Amino acid sequence: MILVDPPAWEARGRVWSHVASDTSYAELHEFAARVGLHPLSYDGDHYDVPSERYEEVLAAGAVPSSAREILSRVHAAGLRFRKRRGERPLAAIPDGLPYLPVSHRLDLIASDREPPEETTVAAVTFVADERGRTLLIRSTHRDSWEGPGGWREPGEPVRDGAARELREESGMQVAPGDLAACAYERIILHEELTSGPGAGRLHPVSHIAVFAATVAGSGPASAHGPEGHELGWFGGDELESRCGGSPWWPILARLRRADGSHASRARPVR
Prior knowledge:
The protein has helices at about 25-35, 55-60, 65-75, 160-170, 235-245, 250-255; strands at about 1-5, 10, 15-20, 45-50, 65, 90-95, 105-110, 120-130, 135-140, 145, 150, 180-190, 205-215, 220-225, 230-235, 265. The longest helix has 13 residues, at about 160-170. It is an alpha+beta fold. It contains 6 helices and 16 strands. InterPro entries: DUF4031, NUDIX_hydrolase-like_dom_sf, NUDIX_hydrolase_CS, NUDIX_hydrolase_dom. Its cofactor is Mg(2+).
């Protein structure tokens, strides 16, 4: 069921309602698309709707509810999306990681803050060159193009792990302190993971830190990293064709739309 509370929330010079589903994220997004809610009004477990559109949302089938009732129903349905102040939810994807054999949810959050260190199990770095192309690594075991990254070693600082994976997979060196936090993935397991990828590594709630960097000059069209991975620098439609179907694509798409404030400079190994 689609629910909406009365306009009562003041922000940015307007008054807002919340539109939510107590059934599924799919129902929420379908309703938002049908009534033409702007994608940027999505906020994890609801859409923000300005007061002047409240009657329109009701006419489209949303059921009037109190804010308290919406929160209770969303929480009971397991659809509550938690975030810290200043963070922006990008997506919540049921069973978003095909390689995990158990029921789970993948949350994508844009943030300039790192996720909790104690539950961060891996890190990824998206590197751009001065032509605006992004470095991708071809994963042979998943047959897909991804940002350089991997599991964090026991006791290893998160940024150190991100820099190590970048160096091992691409040959590029960057000081851990020069990486810019831009997002993170949150994996919520709905049942115990006893086998397959991630078994023994993932917590009931785990995080993957996502960093950004830029490199001077223009990256080569293609090459191979120290571990033999195929490397490629891609931009525009070619980049989207390589990884637009990946569950983490909304993070990279947002990063590419940003004004560059997330990026820092990495030094390539010659």
